[in-house]
Design goal:
By secondary structure, the chain is an alpha+beta fold. Helix content is about 55%, strand content about 25%. Strands 1-2-3 form a three-stranded antiparallel sheet, with helices on one face. A hairpin with a 2-residue loop joins strand 2 and strand 3. The protein is elongated.
């Protein structure tokens, strides 16, 4: 009977998470949330650029597409690229517009995250 009580006591003391384990998981959670907060504006900007490029692919001329992109960039607060950074090929009835750029996001001290974005209208 004595052995059974000590076995139950050992099992019950091992249930749940320790304080150190909880702090570790909380620390990892805060790091992930911090990273998402830092990266999300860049990702939102990328999708805004992608959407603008797709809309402009039906523009009749290369000059109008560049001007249209610059106008949309002012409205949507796109700062990473401009109309002159777009690679535009005329394909008859539509334009094939492509872009690529690199975004560096400062995290902590000398640590940065570099993301290479690329996309196009097709």
């Amino acid at each position: 009977m004595n052995q059974r009580n000590s076995m139950n006591k050992t099992q019950s003391s091992q249930l749940g998470a320790s304080l150190l384990g909880s702090i570790f998981y909380l620390f990892i959670f805060v790091l992930v949330i911090g990273l998402v907060v830092k990266v999300s504006p860049s990702v939102i900007e990328y999708f805004s650029i992608q959407q603008t490029v797709k809309k402009l692919s039906s523009t009749p001329t290369v000059e109008r597409a560049r001007a249209g992109f610059d106008q949309a960039a002012r409205v949507d607060s796109i700062t990473s690229i401009s109309g002159r950074d777009l690679d535009i090929l005329n394909e008859g009835a539509s334009l094939d517009i492509r872009f690529a750029y690199r975004k560096e996001i400062k995290l902590v001290g000398p640590v940065s995250l570099v993301i290479d974005y690329a996309g196009g209208s097709k």
